[in-house]
Amino acid sequence: MARYVYDLDEPTDGGRELLGGKGIGLAEMTQLGVPVPAGFTITTDACRAYMELGDFPEGLGEEVDEHLSRLEETAGKRFGDPEDPLLVSVRSGAAISMPGMMDTILNVGLNDEAASGGERFVLDSYRRLIQMYGETVDRIDAHFFSDALDEEDLPATIDSFKRIYQDQTGRPFPQDAKEQLGRAVRAVFESWNTPRAQRYRRHNDIPDDLGTAVNVVQMVFGNKGERSGTGVAFTRDPSTGEQGLYGEFLADAQGEDVVAGIRTPEPLERMKERLPEAYQEFLDTMRRLEEHYRDMQDIEFTVEDGKLFLLQTRSAKRTAAAALKAAVDMVDEGLISREEAVARIDPGQLDQLLHPRIDPDAAYDVAAKGLNASPGAASGAVVFDADTAELRGKEGEAVILVRWETTPDDIHGMIAAQGILTAHGGMTSHAAVVARGMGKPCVAGCEALSLDLDAKTMSLNGTTLKEGETLTIDGGTGEVIAGEVTLIPPDINEDFETVLGWADELRRLKVRTNADTPEDAAKAREFGAEGIGLCRTEHMFMADDRLPVVREMIMASNEDERRSALDRLLPHQQSDFEGIFEAMAGLPVTIRLLDPPLHEFLPPPEEATDARMRARIRALHESNPMLGTRGCRLGLMFPEIYEMQVRAIIRAAIAVRDRTGDPPLVEIMHPLVGFEEELRRLRELTIETADEEGDVEYLVGTMIELPRACIRADEIAEHADFFSFGTNDLTQTALGFSRDDAEGKFLTHYLQDGVLERNPFETLDQSGVGDLMAIAVERGRSTKPDIKLGICGEHGGEPSSVAFCHTLGLDYVSCSPYRVPLARLAAAQAALAEAGVEAVAVGG
Ligand code: ADP
Ligand code: MG
Ligand code: MG
Asked: What confidence category does residue 684 fall into, taking pLDDT thresholds of 50, 70 and 90?
């Protein structure tokens, strides 16, 4: 018979998947002997069964009753007792943490009889129960309660809360403790599927079928007066990774007050003054937890009458900078190995470190200061609600979401915004926690900020801004500036270099970059690129001083005219290549010959300068340019174009070799090959032309970006020294999706509707496109065992796709310069995973 409930002191094999993150943390702390109130956990299995049946599975009710009786024994109190009853919290907690996304109800088990004439904290607890229960179980709008709250007159507040409950539901507030418990458990199960929880999961790639566990925990009371309180703390600073406790404390309060940002909490120092013994025990416990988990912890605690209780522990969410610093420090402290340090950094999160900062030389006036809740700077149009943020953000506008305080319902706006500013709440408020996780700049608790939501204006110490006006925030300093300020990219610090240095020792995949200019090439080398995997030549055709010549070439009525235009383009191309070869100093450079259809270089028909041009534009018109005269097809129809490019490449290589002594490793790449014969002819053309220019080493290869090329890779390999998977076009052609006609249209619908889980243009479609790649690898190698293999599509910088490329046995991945560090780390994690060290990203 299935078992659905475990006491906190009962060991299980199910782990986090079964008990949820909160449940496993409570169980482990209990078993370690850390002070935790007693309780039990209803498993995620029960939640999944509930979701399937729409009701409690058989036996669950009885099991809960059994564990409740045991809890009554331990507590020495009875649930539902009219005097001094056992009270519990009913808490959500999935395997993967989704902070604030699901529901928790405190003080379950209290009713009129038990509360009447009780101490202040009992009345306070009762009004909280009616409020939380009303909001989560019966979905009563929160404002009804917050509007009616009067902390000075709790009996009156309870009366009005009960009236609100009755008005909104048509029933009196339930007095039966078991009924409260049953409905609270259901509500927590159901909170798994609220739209905001679904949105959060989609944004964070969390599967929809995990379900949440429910933790039923004996209440401890932080709202019992001055010797009580509640707080949250980190074992290290989650913004910087600096060692030392970091947290906030609120005297005479229950837990939710801290997170909700209702009262602005005080630093932990105050707890030390007020409750020195509990504080000392708290310090010792934090140290033990960090040693046990060998990672930075984020904990929730409550002190009741001077006695400490821990209510939650988890690996702390942290900024990328903090993740790196903590990892490096923990290696120094002997807490973890280098491999573990590398496995622990979320590659996607490194992006944060590449976020802009305010130019230190910029002059600007600070209108106000708030808490520096999440680093990075951002400028954008002020918006006051999440829907507007999403709307304007989708149109490509940079927006700053300005709120009194954010709630989980604002998630979609936070995703769309460049930065977040709030008037209220601390470093652990919703806005701060979520922004850090997303790697977005956030200034929280900016007290000088006042909002007039009807007029859609905000004011900061007398400066007023209307919706749509520009605001700049610096989440690293907490500064808020009216207007725009120059931002600059950040530099990479020592911890970053250290961890990536370790990663480099562990990875097998090489990491190259996609770069079309010497500047990009130089930037990418700073980030650790080991070559260029894709240098596209069409941009060189687009520059102002070249486009007229390119047009002349396209307009030419015969080969001679075309050749004369190409002769004039050649020196430009050559000098571009020289710049790139020099920047890469002897590292391999893959140059792709001209790929786009020629009409891309001509103006739209209405801008044609004469009738002849208009006719040519019409003649070149294609109804499906993606599948038209482009890539090697162009090279075969107009061989003189590729000939010119090959000449320019070889001349540049010779010039750079002679000038610097560093011969570049040139790889000439032919795009869009589908047939062996295409590449056979183009290879011949390449070699003949190169031979005329002189003696340098180079390779000739092809992009693999058509399904046919994958299938016939054995034949194509006869003529190729290397393959580079062009997974952008390969995805388009394998899926039959034109990217331009998919994104924002049916693909967006597919993703929203769950037809597809991921955007295949961002995350490689491993089972479809990936299988074609596997075929190409196998067949290509069957002809040429040591053929060089790489990937140059955008997937080359996406961590899970990098891991897939590792598994396929490619030689390198190539990605945009800013993604190079991320690819280095992802490649190391792939190698570690192969060796059995799983990546456990604990960051955002
Ligand atoms: P969340 O996942 O939103 O943090 P929690 O289940 O952790 O929700 O609970 C919300 C708040 O209530 C937290 O501050 C927590 O510490 C507090 N809390 C939960 N259970 C208890 C309890 N048994 N006694 C006292 N406070 C509790
Ligand atoms: Mg919590
Ligand atoms: Mg392509």
From this structure: very high
